[in-house]
Amino acid sequence: MIYLDNAATTKPSKNALDTYLKYAETGYFNPSAGYPQAVEIKAAMNAARKTAAEIFGADGDVVFTASGTESNNLAFFGINLRKGARVVIGGAEHKSVYEPAMKLKAQGFDVVLCPATASGAVTVQNLLSCVDSNTAFVSVMHINNETGAINDIAALSAAAKKINQKIIFHSDGVQAFCKVPQTLGSVDLYSFSSHKINSVKGAGGLFIKKGLHLSPHILGGGQEGGLRSGTENVGALMAMCAQAKFRSENLNESLTHCTSLKSIFIEKLLKKTDYRCIFEENSDFSPYIASFVSASVRGETMQSALAAQGVLIGTGSACASNATSGRIPAALGLNKADGKGIIRISFAPETGEEKTSLAADLLCNTWTRLSSL
User: Fold this and answer.
1) What is the CATH number of domain 2-10+251-363?
2) Range(s) for CATH 3.40.640.10 in the chain?
3) Which residue of 13, 136, 202, 242 sits 20 to 30 Å from the alpha carbon of 87, by its own alpha carbon?
4) How far is CA 18 from CA 21, 239, 240, in A?
5) Pairing of strands 2-3, 189-193
6) pLDDT beyond 90 at 339
7) Sign of the C-alpha dihedral computed for residues 327, 330, 335 and 338 taken in this order
């Protein structure tokens, strides 16, 4: 099997699994209990929390959650927005940002979708056309999960706050956490997830800049400083933090390796097929994601044909795979036919160059066969 859908999820590393098993087998105590073993677990979790927070190079804390989706929801519903205030989100956001924004709209907030470029990015110019003095909250993803476009969230946040310094700026960093440098600038809230960095599922977090106060939207036992009730998934959270430390320490090596892998696909597909890369000159893109559009082969058709040959690729966000939606293709300016021809290839540090080259060849050969039908 050749796995090239790492933007959907990644294979847990030995480092992550060993950490998870350590706490699942011997450190399984409830960190909210009062006996010494539990107190020790809570101390270990707080040390891991500090390690995760330090990755951002900003003064703040981390609240542990169960997923990036939950972190995004906490960011939206944990802030106390003035009724009628403007909320601005990127035009090609993940559903876990788009849907909370639409709920706020239904509640009477002035929700504006900032136009995205053809690569899915948000420019400072476009953002400033949407932000006004009534804007209270802005959310723009760090890396677009469909195209890999990198947004300069530090510049976007700074520009928005020149219009209104009280704006709270949030970024969905699920595809960027420990994959690219974490330069937050004046970003206030940053969501991240465990299973995108070769750790286990069921863990995530929200970085909260010092001085910003949120209200909980999951009530109960008052865990996580009262912001997220529910007994913590200790093993998964500890594994996430251990893997985050490892990935951040080996960031440059991963970037170099995945840049090479992405180049293999771009060179072969552009030369041998009608696929075109969703890419714009003078734009920054993640080396971990490459999205292509074909006018002659449907994305789902290519995905199924390659899966039969042991090559697993994506056709877009895994969270939207069971629902037909043209929202993102439309935001990218794609017509209906092109929107159905999207495939997404995504890499991880452990992805081998030889297998990547083989997968690219198989994809090209499969395109030749399918496009002639």
Assistant:
1) 3.90.1150.10
2) 14-249
3) 202
4) 5, 8, 11
5) unpaired
6) no
7) negative
Domain 14-249 falls under CATH 3.40.640.10:
yes
Query: At 242, which amino acid appears?
Result: A
Report the candidate in 343, 355, 338 with the shortest Cα–Cα distance to residue 301.
Answer: 343
* Helix or strand run (H / E) with residue 65: strand 60-65
Residue listed under structure tokens 């913590």: 232
CA distance 369 to 273: 11
The alpha carbon torsion through 257, 177, 302, 319 (nearest 10 deg) reads 170
Cβ(217)–Cβ(70) below 8 Å: no
SS3 25: helix
Supply 355's token pair. 């297998």
Least confident of 83-92, 205-214, 277-286, 333-342: 277-286
Cα–Cα distance, 112 to 184 (Å, whole number)? 23
Alpha helices in the chain (DSSP H): 14-25, 36-54, 68-78, 95-106, 124-128, 153-163, 234-249, 251-272, 299-307, 327-331, 336-339, 353-371
Intervals of CATH 3.90.1150.10 along the chain: 2-10+251-363
21: phi then psi, degrees, rounded to nearest 5: -65, -35
Of 225, 185, 184, 175, nearest in space to 72 by CA: 175
Residue type, 320: A
Amino acid at 239: A
Residue 171 in tokens: 């970024």
Rounded Cα distance between 60 and 82, Å, is 24
CA distance 257 to 356: 12
Tell me if residue 241 is catalytic.
no
201: its two tokens: 């599922």
Mean pLDDT on 48-61? 95
Q: Are 345 and 303 in contact (CB under 8 A)?
A: no
Express each pLDDT in 119-154 by its tens digit. 999 999 999 999 999 999 999 999 999 999 999 999
